[in-house]
Design brief:
Blueprint lengths: L7 H15 L11 H11 L4 H14 L3 H6 L2 H8 L6 H16 L8 H4 L7 H12 L8 H11 L11 H11 L5 H14 L18 H4 L17 E11 L2 E6 L10 E2 L2 E3 L6 H13 L2 E14 L4 E13 L9 E5 L11 H4 L2 H8 L4
Parallel strand pairs: 1-6
Antiparallel strand pairs: 1-2, 1-4, 2-3, 2-7, 5-6
């Protein structure tokens, strides 16, 4: 079979026509406000649309303008982000808002180079916001777009290899419709999300299948190509719900790094040959300086991060002696049960907090 060269103008026309007729009605598409567009793109990184929608509404309800976000305390911002994951996104967005409010009169830059100097703004966020909010001709390259391009051109470059990014970007730049780049970029992403899906792509209803080399050669399942991911390690962790005079101890993680700025119940990794209960006692003493005893095992939580997994054993503990002197965490609180909802916790902690509330509601 002879596979035709791609007619770019015709491709753009058919894709955008399809998008205008079939795109999803999403809340951030109802506004031209660069702030709201930016929020949505930050949230959508590595997170599914159906998860983002409720967080988007909650976030703009609490921080309807960039200035209000800039004036907010980081802890409050993290609480609004709680459960969404990848908390560096929230911290960087908050830092960027503060910088814009202080140095740029509260105006989001419509210059790509200037916008990219802001915390958390890389190629993807930069291209998405600048094209959708301001109409500047920058092609967006995310996972959905890479998949479309890989099948469209039968690209052999692995989509999950960083060295392939510029290759995909070159093809995306070539296809970009420059008169309305924001609509075109959204159409490419929407095609990947709804039609050109990872498994069982709906090629028979694809608006641009006539240009797709993988479809025309019946090799859809061969693309996109991926480098086989390495097996992620699992770490065994123990944490304690330390009780003292009707209160519980929580500690706050450093502001940078994994889960930065969030609160948690103290604990840490088991050493080789160590049992979970002993590790819980040792880690709490090392982190906080206090001595505790374990009373009962509450539950075991399993949770996956990007590059590793954890198995976390949770214990009820009783305070024995000592005063808190932190080694690692940056802050601590002795709180009552009813105060739990006022602090932002990692998702792994959120998996067992309802059990605490149920079990201790009459005693803490």
């Amino acid at each position: 079979m002879i596979i035709p060269d791609l007619d770019i103008c015709r491709f753009q026309e058919k894709l955008v026509t399809w998008y205008q007729a079939h795109h999803r009605q999403l809340p951030w598409r109802e506004s031209n406000d660069p702030y709201r567009i930016w929020i949505s793109e930050v949230m959508l990184q590595q997170t599914q649309v159906k998860t983002v929608i409720s967080y988007f509404y909650k976030f703009i309800h609490h921080f309807p303008t960039l200035d209000e976000l800039a004036q907010a305390d980081l802890e409050r911002v993290l609480k609004m982000w709680e459960g969404l994951g990848y908390y560096a996104r929230a911290r960087n967005f908050h830092k960027a808002a503060k910088r814009i409010s202080k140095d740029l009169n509260g105006i989001i830059p419509d210059d790509f180079s200037q916008f990219k100097t802001l915390p958390g703004v890389g190629d993807y966020i930069g291209a998405a916001v600048q094209s959708i909010a301001f109409g500047h001709p920058f092609a967006v390259v995310d996972g959905n777009v890479k998949r479309v391009l890989a099948r469209l051109y039968c690209l052999r470059h692995p989509v999950n290899k960083s060295s392939s990014h510029q290759y995909f970007k070159g093809h995306a730049d070539l296809l970009l419709e420059k008169k309305d780049p924001g609509t075109f970029n959204q159409a490419m992403m929407e095609l990947g999300a709804l039609i050109c899906t990872p498994r069982n792509p709906q090629c028979t209803v694809c608006p641009v299948s006539q240009f797709c080399k993988a479809f025309l050669s019946d090799r859809m399942d061969e693309y996109p190509r991926r480098v086989k991911a390495k097996k992620v390690p699992t770490y065994h962790i123990a944490a304690g719900i330390v009780r003292k005079k009707g209160q519980m101890l929580i500690t706050r993680r450093k502001l940078d790094g994994l889960l930065g700025g969030l609160w948690e119940f103290p604990g840490g990794k088991l050493k080789t040959g160590e049992d979970a209960a002993s590790a819980c006692i040792r880690e709490i003493q090392e982190e906080t300086g206090i001595c505790v005893q374990t009373d009962a095992h509450l539950t075991t939580v399993h949770h996956a991060y990007t590059h590793f997994k954890i198995q976390m054993d949770i214990y009820y503990c009783t305070y024995v002696s000592g005063s808190v002197h932190l080694n690692g965490p940056i802050d601590f609180r002795w709180i009552r049960l009813k105060e739990l909802d006022t602090f932002a916790f990692p998702k792994a902690n959120l998996k067992f907090i309802p059990m605490i509330e149920e079990n201790l509601s009459h005693s803490v």
